[in-house]
Amino acid sequence: MARRGSYAKGVARREEILESALDVIGRKGYQNASLKEIAEVVGVTPAALLHYFGSKEELFTEVLRKRDEHDGLDPSGLSDAEARTGFIEVIRHNTEVPGLVALFSRLSVDAADPDHPAHEYFLDRSARLRESIADSFGAEERRSALDPDTLARVIQAASDGLQLQWMIDPSVDMPGIMSALIDALHPPAPPTAD
C-alpha cells in the first residue's frame, strides 16, 4: 500500500512541477525561466526536477503537453463555426502567454532532430491538429477549393508562421489574420433561409 501512496505523491508532485513551470514560463518567458526558478516555486531542487523529467528538454516537452491540455479544444461534435471560434480563441490566448509561444517555437525547431525528446510530441501534435482541422472544416458542405487535408496543412503552416512574426513584432494581429485567412480559404456557410 505504501507504494501506491508514494506513486500518487510522485504523480501529484510531477503535476505541481508542470503547472508551476507553465506559469513561470508563461509569465517570464522561455529564456528567462531557469530550472532553478521553477524548482524554487515548487520547493524542490533543480536535481529533483530532473528526477521527475530526466532532462530540461523533457520537462519543457511535458510543459507543452500540459499547455495543450489547458488549451484543449476537442472539435468532435462542434459545428464548423464553433471549431473556427475555438481555434481563433486558442490563438488569441497565445498572445497572453508569449513565453509559452517562444518555448513552442524554439522546441519545434530543435525537435526537427529525430533524436530530440520533443520530436515525437511535435509529430503527434501536428497530426492531431491537422486531423482536427480537416474534420472540422471538411464535415460540412465543401466550400473550399482545397481538400480538407491540404486546407489543414495550410492553416497549420500559417498559424505557426504568424507566431514567429508575432514574436518579432507583437503588433501582428494573429487572431485577426488567421480568421481572415480561414474565411478566405473556407468561406463561412451562407445563412439559411428560415
Any overview of this molecule?
This protein has 9 helices and no strands. It has 194 residues and is mainly alpha-helical.
CATH topology: Tetracycline Repressor, domain 2
CATH superfamily: Tetracycline Repressor, domain 2
- Biggest pleated-sheet summary: none
Compute the gyration radius: what is it?
A: 19 Å
Question: Which CATH architecture would you pick?
Answer: Orthogonal Bundle
Low-confidence stretches: none
Helix fraction bin = over 70%
Structure annotation, total helices = 9
Tell me the series of helices and strands, N- to C-terminal: HHHHHHHHH
Tell me the number of strands.
0
Brief summary:
InterPro entries: Homeodomain-like_sf (IPR009057), HTH_TetR (IPR001647), Tet_transcr_reg_TetR-rel_C_sf (IPR036271). This protein is mainly α.
Keywords:
mainly alpha; Tetracycline Repressor, domain 2; 194 residues; 0% strand
Write the layout of secondary structure elements.
Layout lengths: L1 H27 L6 H8 L3 H8 L2 H16 L8 H15 L3 H13 L8 H20 L9 H21 L5 H12 L9
Organism: Microbacterium maritypicum (Microbacterium liquefaciens)
Protein name: TetR/AcrR family transcriptional regulator
Pfam family, one: TetR_N
